[in-house]
Structure formats: C-alpha cells, structure tokens
C-alpha cells in the first residue's frame, strides 16, 4: 500500500473530476429511488428562425450543436521504452493492456453545411488491478515500476453531422502523470516520483443519437507521449524515452439543451432504443474522517495509529441499465474511486468508513462494480410496479415471481438488506452496523465478486439463494475458479409481518464457504522459531467455514424504525474477504425529521458489540495479523462501537451527514483506545 500523505493533492483532482461523472444521470428524488412527477409544461414557443441555408430538422433528429458531458470506458494498449541505471545500464520495453475509464466534456457547433466543428477535453484512469503499470524493471535492491496515473487530452474535432449519426476526426494535445515507483529492500518504505509526460493525440469516431439528449460513441484514439526521468534516494536512476497509448473507447454522453426527460414523446418511435427500456443514474460520495490522538502504548503492523489523522475517500458511479427483452435486463456500474481509509483501512474490526477500500488509491482508479444480467419470471396473480432507479428499470411485475441474477455484483445487493442500515453512502458508516458482523462477505479488495442469485418472492415471504466465487487467497483480487466445489453458498428466508399494524421483516441468513484458508490453531502451533511466527499463510489448505446472521427491522411509526443484527461464526480459520470478527450484536434506530418540518433529514443512533473466538484470540495474542487487525499482542476485550449521525437534506438530490463514532477496545485490545472518530459525508444522487 502507498503512503497516505499523497492523498490530499490527489483528492482535489479527483473531487472535481468525479463530480462530472456523477452528473451523468437521470432525474431522481433525494434518495434516487422515485421518478419525479412531470410538471405541466407551458405553451411551446414558436421555433427560432433557422440560419440561412440550413434545412429544418426533421422530427426526432438530433441537434448536435451545444455543450456535451459524458463518461467512457476504453481498452488501451500502452507501450514504453525505458532505461534503468542501478548502477549499470539495463534497457527494456514494457506494455500494458488495461481497461480505462473517465469523463469527457466538450462543445460542438454545426454549420449550415452540416459540417461540425468542436473542442473536447477528457481524462481517463486505469483499472485498479492493473494499476497503470507499464514497465517493471528489477534492481539489485528491489524493483522500479513505471505507472500511468491518468491520461488527459484537449482536442479539436471536425466531422459531418447527420440526423442521427455523427462521423468525426479529432486531434490535439495529450498529457499524462507518470508515477515512478521504487520498492527497495534497502529503504524504510516505498518511494514515488511524479512526472508529467506531454505529447499529442489523434483519432476518429462515430456517434449515434439514442434520444433527444443522449448519444453513444465509438472512438479510436492514439496518444503519443514523451519521455520522463528520475533519480531515487537509493541511487537508482530511471529514464523513459517515450510512451504510445492506443485504444478503443465506448462513450455515453448527455447534450445540454436536449432535455432531461426519457419519457415518451410524439416522435419516440424514431429513436433506435425505446426510452422506457434504458436508464442512467449517478452518485457521488465524499467522506472526510479522522480523529485526534488516543492512548496507544504500542502498535503492531495492522494497528490503528495512535497519532492524530484525517483521511478522505471519494467515489463516483454511473448506473447504466438496458432492457433486452421482456423480463431481461443488463446493468453495468463503472465507478472511479480515490482515497484512503484511516491507517490504510486497518486497526478496527468494525471499521468506521464503509466507503474506504481495502486497496488505497493516491490517484483515482477505475473499477466496474457491477456487470450482471437479471431475468424475472412472472408467476401470475397480483402485480406491483417497480419504479425507475439505480440498477432498476421501471416495469410492472407479478408479486409472485422468480428472479435470477448472474454476473459481477455484491452479496449485499440481495442479502442482509435492512431498511435502516444497509448503505454506508446514506446511512450508518460503520462496517458491522450496516454489514453482517461475523459474516465473511466474499469480495475482492474493493468489495465485489462474481456469482449467481435466485430470488423466489411471494406476498408475505421470500426465499433467496446464491453462489459466489471466493478469492484464491485471503484479501486478494483473484478468484478461485474451482466451480462449484469451491466458493460460497448462501441462503436467506425472509418473513414479512405486522406488529400492532406496523410492518416488519425478519431475515435469517446462512452461509458456507469452501476455499484455501489458513488455520488459527495450526499457525499458533508452529515452532516459535518459524520466520514471521505465527505465519498463517503457511497453514493454508482447502477448508470449510460457515456462519449465521439474524436480521430484523421494525417500523414504529411512519418516521421511526428500529433494527438489529446478530451474527456467529466458529472462528477457526482466517477471514477471506470481510473483517476479523466471529460474533456480533447490533441495535439501532433511525428517525426522520417530519415532526419538525425536515422530512428529508434523518437521525440515526446504533451500537455494535463484537468478539473473537478463543482460537482467534490466541492467534492475535501471539502476534498474528488478519485482514484488518493485528497489534502484535492482545489484551482481549470485545470491541464496542457507538455511532450517531445527522443527515441534512440540502436538496432533493444532495445530503450532508455529520457522523460520530466512539470505538472502545479497537482491534479487541483493552491496552489501546478508546478513540472518538468524526466524519462529514457529502452524497449526491442524480
């Protein structure tokens, strides 16, 4: 992981950049879940006079003149030529094939001849797994890696605009931030040198209008960038003579002035895709979180630092949905993340920021959170209407139905849901208040996996089951493909009931994992002379883990509700994806501000107590480390956390939340803490 000291500079860049992608969306209310009623429109004014020689635009034709804003995904191939002096000279060439993603903004003007002239700027970030690494050269003391943090261009474009198509060529300036990274065994840490590459860009593309304000584009672009050089404190020198990046880009963009409605219009039939069969939404979440110094007589490799610190995280997501056929829908959610959790997301089992990634990004990185197909089979009888929202197309379904979902997603998309505590972007921030406590949530480091979910729904109950890929190793980004003998199986019956006429839900969640896991007991039983004792990685073999979560929510009034979760796992093996916890109980309440005329405000208060199994206690007391905790020693006490927040509904699509958490015995260690953690969260949905 990189040092968090780089984050403040990068977060400013990220905040401005990611705000753009968050605006890449449809209309929605303050919670992004309901269509806003369409107001009665005023009489239409007579059309403005056309420029001399211009032909009238036919019904449904797209107006290409104006400002546009959008996002894109691209597959780029990068090649670099470099020389390493360590001392001695080593020449090499490197290559990177990676998914990139980002935003673009521009302005176009169409002449009476249909010739289009415009200007456009964009910025793209590499996928988090590849991390933009183009060249990696070994040295006698370690290695030097040349990484692309981002690529940006400012280009003119010229083309020919038809009613629904635009063909164009583009060219201009290009620049990129290079991160020269040395991992040296002779230094106390890692060293980064930041350099700027400059050059030119050229390409060509085609754009298709798919609505009054929307268009799809396919573009080829070549970026030719110059060289960079740097000398590290270790004495190693690096020089790159140049880099070429070429790729194919698929983009979606919104044209200002084309209208923000996707509702039916008299000429809807002209568009190639029915406006009711696709949607776009977006979100932006910024969290600033920190604390002042607390009692910390010692620290281990995975401790929460006892010194004062404040860190920030930012995420921006586009939610794209398309109906393929009746009941069949596909969704893709590209997201850009940047920032750091406190102490690199270490030190507290119930970690205080649900937006913090286990992978830390000093500069923004792309991740495709979700890419899944959902098929719904109606079983007849009473029907219900599903409203437009993120990962949800408007439709009417049978209440009795079977839904099958397959692809890249989160277990929490379907399981462990709770009206009052499920989403750290709008509700409680703490992992084990909105999560399942001891449930070993299968995920890669950013929080996602691949799997399949079957959901059988009835009017008063539901039953859902799932199968998900496990990691090859704990807290990793690669997946164990021994299907179906390895992986995680889940099941959750849900009962909907009324208590004194107020609705409630009870969900009983069970899970079984089969994966390559280490044993706490085996690690402690190793000879004390074993390097890195107790090294749980040396005990890994295919093992089974399991657990249960009881999850209840109860409405008290229209504005007040309570919830609770209780979880258990035997705690014999290392955790694969979530956090170091073997038992937990949480209880909380949420109150809306309707009584004092602030219906979009909310107050939440909750607490969680969590613990470790005897085997896990012995392992951490011996100096072991887990996914999140490891102080080098352990005076065991249950970890106790209290969280309270107030969410201000600033506008129907913006919420500002002030959050406070008190953590006693962080990392289950009575020798350290308590610590008071403060946070401010800004969340926008469109």
Topology, element by element:
Elements: H1 7-22, E1 66-85, E2 89-110, E3 115-126, E4 133-139, E5 142-161, E6 165-184, E7 190-209, E8 214-225, E9 228-231, E10 237-255, E11 278-291, E12 309-325, E13 328-339, E14 361-378, E15 383-386, E16 395-398, E17 401-409, H2 431-434, E18 449-457, E19 461-468, E20 487-499, E21 502-517, H3 520-524, E22 541-555, E23 560-568, E24 583-593, E25 598-611, H4 614-621, E26 639-651, E27 654-664, E28 675-685
Fold and architecture overview:
This protein is mainly β and 686 residues long. The protein has two domains: 65-260, Beta Barrel (Porin); 277-294 and 301-308 and 318-685, Porin (Beta Barrel). The chain is built from four helices and 28 strands. The chain has helices spanning 7-22, 431-434, 520-524, 614-621; strands at residues 66-85, 89-110, 115-126, 133-139, 142-161, 165-184, 190-209, 214-225, 228-231, 237-255, 278-291, 309-325, 328-339, 361-378, 383-386, 395-398, 401-409, 449-457, 461-468, 487-499, 502-517, 541-555, 560-568, 583-593, 598-611, 639-651, 654-664, 675-685. The strands form three sheets. Strands 11-12-13-14-17-18-19-20-21-22-23-24-25-26-27-28 form a 16-stranded antiparallel beta barrel. It has an eight-stranded antiparallel β-barrel with strand order 1-2-3-5-6-7-8-10. The longest helix is centred in the N-terminal third of the chain and has 16 residues, at 7-22. The chain starts with 6 loop residues before the first helix and ends with a strand.
């Amino acid at each position: 992981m990189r040092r968090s000291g780089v984050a403040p500079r990068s977060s400013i860049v990220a905040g401005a950049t990611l705000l753009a992608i968050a605006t890449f969306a449809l209309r929605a209310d303050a919670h992004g879940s309901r269509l806003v009623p369409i107001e009665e429109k005023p009489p239409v004014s007579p059309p403005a006079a056309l420029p001399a020689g211009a032909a009238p635009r036919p019904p449904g034709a797209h107006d290409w003149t104006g400002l546009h804003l959008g996002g894109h995904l691209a597959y780029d191939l990068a090649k670099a030529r470099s020389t390493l002096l360590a001392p001695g000279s080593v020449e090499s060439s490197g290559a990177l094939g990676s998914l990139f993603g980002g935003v673009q903004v521009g302005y176009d003007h169409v002449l009476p001849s249909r010739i289009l002239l415009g200007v456009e700027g964009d910025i793209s970030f590499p996928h988090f797994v590849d991390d933009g690494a183009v060249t990696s050269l070994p040295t006698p003391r370690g290695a030097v890696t040349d990484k692309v943090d981002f690529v940006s261009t400012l280009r003119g474009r010229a083309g020919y605009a038809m009613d629904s198509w635009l063909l164009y060529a583009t060219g201009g300036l290009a620049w990129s931030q290079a991160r020269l990274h040395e991992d040296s065994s002779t230094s106390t840490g890692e060293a980064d040198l930041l350099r700027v590459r400059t050059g030119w860009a050229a390409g060509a593309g085609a754009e298709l209008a798919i609505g009054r304000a929307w268009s799809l584009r396919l573009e080829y672009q070549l970026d030719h960038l110059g060289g960079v050089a740097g000398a590290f404190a270790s004495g190693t020198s690096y020089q790159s003579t140049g880099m070429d990046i070429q790729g194919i880009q698929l983009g979606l963009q919104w044209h200002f002035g084309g209208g923000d409605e996707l509702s039916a219009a008299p000429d809807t039939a002209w568009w190639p895709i029915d406006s009711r069969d696709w949607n776009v939404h977006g979100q932006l979440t910024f969290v600033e979180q920190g604390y002042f110094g607390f009692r910390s007589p010692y620290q281990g490799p995975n401790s929460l630092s006892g010194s004062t610190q404040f860190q920030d995280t930012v995420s921006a997501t586009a939610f794209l949905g398309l109906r393929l056929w009746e009941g069949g829908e596909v969704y893709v959610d590209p997201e850009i993340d940047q920032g750091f959790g406190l102490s690199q997301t270490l030190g507290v089992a119930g970690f205080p920021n649900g937006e913090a990634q286990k992978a830390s990004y000093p500069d923004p990185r792309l991740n495709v959170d979700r890419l899944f197909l959902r098929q719904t089979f109606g079983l007849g009888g009473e029907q219900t209407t599903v409203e437009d929202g993120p990962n949800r197309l408007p439709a009417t379904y049978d209440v009795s139905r079977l839904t099958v979902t397959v692809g890249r997603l989160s277990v929490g998309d379907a399981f462990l849901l709770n009206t009052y505590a499920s989403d750290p972007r709008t509700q409680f921030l703490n992992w084990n208040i909105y999560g399942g406590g001891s449930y070993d949530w299968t995920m890669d480091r950013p929080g996602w996996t691949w799997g399949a979910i079957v959901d059988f729904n009835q009017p008063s109950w539901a039953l859902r089951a799932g199968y998900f890929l496990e990691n090859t190793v704990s807290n990793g980004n690669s997946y164990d493909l021994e299907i179906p003998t390895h992986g995680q199986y889940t099941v959750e019956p849900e009962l909907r009931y009324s208590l004194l006429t107020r609705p409630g839900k009870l969900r009983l969640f069970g899970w079984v994992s089969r994966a390559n896991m280490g044993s706490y007991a085996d690690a402690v039983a190793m000879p004390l002379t074993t390097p890195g004792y107790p090294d749980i990685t040396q005990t890994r073999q295919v093992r089974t883990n399991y657990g249960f979560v009881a999850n209840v929510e109860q409405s008290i009034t229209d504005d007040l509700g309570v919830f609770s979760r209780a979880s258990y796992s035997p705690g014999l093996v290392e955790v694969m994806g979530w956090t170091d916890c073997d038992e937990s109980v949480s209880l909380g309440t949420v109150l809306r501000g309707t009584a004092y005329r602030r219906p979009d405000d909310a107050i939440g208060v909750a607490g969680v107590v969590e613990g470790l199994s005897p085997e896990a206690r012995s392992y951490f007391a011996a100096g072991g480390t887990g996914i999140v905790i490891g102080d080098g020693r352990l005076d065991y006490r249950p970890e106790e956390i209290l969280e309270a927040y107030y969410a201000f509904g600033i506008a129907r699509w913006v919420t500002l939340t002030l959050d406070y958490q008190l953590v006693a015995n962080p990392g289950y260690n009575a020798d350290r803490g308590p610590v008071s953690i403060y946070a401010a969260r800004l969340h926008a949905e469109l």
